[in-house]
Amino acid sequence: MAEGIPRPIPPPERALADILGLAARARALVHGTDMTRKAVREGEVRSVLLAGDAAPAQAQKLVPLLEARRVPFHVCLSREALGFAIGRGPVSAVGITNDSFAKRVAVLVAALSSPQG
Known about the structure:
The chain is an alpha+beta fold. It has one domain (11-113): CATH 3.30.1330.30. Helix content is 51%, strand content 12%. It is built from five helices and four strands, in the order αβαβαβαβα. The protein has a four-stranded mixed beta sheet with strand order 1-4-2-3, with helices on both faces. Helix 1 crosses helix 4 and helix 2 (33-41) packs parallel to helix 3 (56-69). It starts with 10 loop residues before the first helix and ends with a helix. Residues 17-103 form the Ribosomal protein eL8/eL30/eS12/Gadd45 domain. This is Ribosomal protein eL8/eL30/eS12/Gadd45 domain-containing protein.
């Protein structure tokens, strides 16, 4: 596939990508490790999605803070898929700032993780 053209997201992940896109359009999320960390410190983030292929250094910056602040987080999708879902380039982390979106994302991530999902 040509470089710079994102690959389509597989159907099981499509609903998650759709809700992330909606949250992005509603300005109900922050993207990138640094912006997510800042928003977590400010108490704005309800949950976080961390890309499965995020660099270990990025995860080490974010995960201890999330655990200390008791912010739920999920590891799923790739950097490319997360970025594509929110209309950006590859991103390692997305912080969801709206309770309703955070709850819906948690349900969708659980469905992806289930044996039937």
